[in-house]
Description:
Chain A is α/β, with parallel strands linked by helices. Chain A has one domain (2-19, 29-301): Ribokinase (UDP-N-acetylmuramoyl-L-alanine:D-glutamate ligase), CATH 3.40.1190.20. In chain A, 36% of the residues lie in helices and 26% in strands. In chain A, the strands form 2 sheets. In chain A, strands 6-5-1-9-10-11-12-13-14-15 form a 10-stranded mixed sheet, with helices on both faces. In chain A, helix 1 (38-48) crosses helix 8. The relative contact order of chain A is 0.13.
Amino acid sequence: MIVTVTPNAALDVTYTVDSLVPDAVHRARDVRRRAGGKGVNVARVLHSLGADVRLIATAGGVTGAEVAAELGAAGLAAELVPIAGETRRTTTVLSTVDGSVTLLNEPGPELSAAEWAVLVERVHRRAPDVLVCSGSLPPGAPADGYARLLGGGPSILDTSGAALLAGLAGRPAVVKPNADELREVTGLTDPVAAARELRRRGAGAVVVSLGADGLVAVTASGTWHATPSTVLTGNSTGAGDAVVAALALGLSRREPWPEILRRAVALSGAAVLGPLAGDVDLAHYHRELELVAVRARPEQEL
Amino acid sequence: MIVTVTPNAALDVTYTVDSLVPDAVHRARDVRRRAGGKGVNVARVLHSLGADVRLIATAGGVTGAEVAAELGAAGLAAELVPIAGETRRTTTVLSTVDGSVTLLNEPGPELSAAEWAVLVERVHRRAPDVLVCSGSLPPGAPADGYARLLGGGPSILDTSGAALLAGLAGRPAVVKPNADELREVTGLTDPVAAARELRRRGAGAVVVSLGADGLVAVTASGTWHATPSTVLTGNSTGAGDAVVAALALGLSRREPWPEILRRAVALSGAAVLGPLAGDVDLAHYHRELELVAVRARPEQEL
C-alpha cells in the first residue's frame, strides 16, 4: 500500500475568472471546493489509476469537516488526525482568458506537539510499501518533522526550503523539487549539480521538474532526461503531485527509472489537462505514455 | 435610526501578500476574517461614529454562523435573516509592495422567494429614518428587488448594473455609483450628464465617486464637486461604503449638501487609511473635515 501524508491539509477553493488583474474587482464565475494539499492530490491521482492508496492528513474545525466529507464522497481511503485548529484554505484562481493559475495559500493552523505525535504514530503504524510526504510543514511541527516521519522504508519527499533540507536526514528514496526549489536550497543554478548535492546530503534520487522541459532524474544508477511529446496549456497546479504519484507507483512496483520517468511525464501532462489539482485526463495519459522520450545522458550535457 | 440592508452578505477574508502576481504561488502572511458586504461595512463605519444604526442581512450555513459571531463580537446591532444556502465569501488580497487591492467575490447563495419576503418584511417593519440598500442582489432575488425594498422614506441605493437601473423605480433619495458604474448603466462618459440621466429615471440625487478626485453630487438644489486635501494610498475597498455612511448620516440629520459632501470625502479618506473595509481612521477624518474643498459649479464645467 502507498500512504501519502499531508500534515498541512487544506480545503482548496478554485475560482474561475475571466482574467486576474491586480487592483481590480473580480466576480468568480465558478466556485469549486474540495480537499487539497499536495498529499491529498497525490492520493487522488493514485486512486484514479486504481492503485492501493491511503491518505493520512490533519483536519480541524468546520473546514476540516468539509475536507472529511469531500474525501468520503470522492471514495478516497482517508485517515484524518483531528486537530484543535481550523484547517486552512488554499485558493486557486483560474483565468480563462490568459490561462494563468494563481495560488493564495494560508499558512495553516498551529499543531500541538501531541497532535504531531499522533500523526507520526498513525503513519508508522501503517508500515506502507511506499510513504509519500508532501507539502509544507504546519506551524508547530518540528523543523525536522519529515525526517522523523520517514521511517526507513521507500519514501518520497516533496517539499521545499528548510523542511526539504532538514528532511534529507530521513534519507528519502526520492525527493522531487522543481528547478526553483532546487536552486533555493542549494544555491546552484545547474539542476544536475544541485541534484548531486542533495544526493550527497541524503536523498537516494533527485527528480527535478523542469516545467515544459519535462523531468531530469539523478539517481544511483544514472541520470535521465524525460521530455513530453508536446507542450500543454491548462491548470499546472497538480502537475507536480501527478509526478509524485507516478514515482510512488514506480517505487512500489520496483520499476526501472526510465519506465518510472515515462509514466511521470505522461501523468504530469494528464494533470495539466485535468480541471482541478488531483484530476488527470486518463486518455491523454495513456496516449502520452507511448510518446515520452527518455534519454540517459552524461551529466555534463544538461 | 439608520438601517442598512445587505441581501448578499459575506464573510470577508483579507490576505496580505508581498505582491500579487498572476500565475504565481503566494503565501498569505496575514489572514483576517470578518463580516462583510457593503451594507455591513456602512453599518460598521456608522457604529464607529456613534450613530444609531442597525444592519439587516442574510446569513446561512457555517459561514453565516461565523458572520453572526463576528458581528456580535464587534458590538453591531444586527438582524440576520436565516437562509438555507451557505453565506458567500469575498476575498481581498492586499499587496504590501505595490499597495494594490484585489477582490475576488463569490456570487452568493440563491435566495428563495420566501427568504426574500422575510428580508423585505424585516426592513419595512423597522421603518427607518434612513434606509441604505447596498451591494449586489443575490441569485434568486427579484430583478427589481431594491425598488421593492425602498419604501418611500429617505433612502440610499448603492449598487450597480441592472440592480441599480431597476432600483430607480423605488425613487431612492440618493444613488452613489462610481464613474465606471455610472458609464456602464447610462452609456454616457460625462459624469454630470450621466448623473442627470439617473435623476430623470427616478434618483433624487446622484453622488458620483471619482476616486482621488473626490465626489460630484448632482442634486435638485445644485451641483457640487468636493475634493480631498491630499491623495492617500491604502486599502480603498471600503471607501465607497464610507461615503454611503456619510450620506446616510447627512440625510438623517437633514444637513445641506456641501456639509454632507465634506463629511463624505473626509470619511472616504479615513476608510482608505483603515486596515480593512469598514474601518476608518478617525483622526484623519476629523483633520480632513476642515480641509475638504466643496465648490458649487455650473454643470458644464466638469
